[in-house]
Amino acid sequence: MARIAVIGCILEDPRECQSEFNDVVASFRGSMKGRMGIPFEGEISVISLTVVGEVDDINTLTGKLGNISGVTVKTAIAKKEI
């Protein structure tokens, strides 16, 4: 069964990592339900992703995003299955 998750991402130098970040997110577009990005002064961006999928798929996405240099990721996964 699928679960809802929120993935919070901080891009510490968006010019360097945004392209790779966007490529990974695009490869999971079937799971994406929402995306909100906030650019901050000082070369930092905060992006929140809302996804629906199997826990293994959510963890795979989180792992791929976390492996990008300059990206910090934290995930909250709902306990209730949908």
UniProtKB/TrEMBL annotation:
This is Iron-only hydrogenase system regulator. It holds the Pfam family TM1266-like. It comes from the Bacteria.
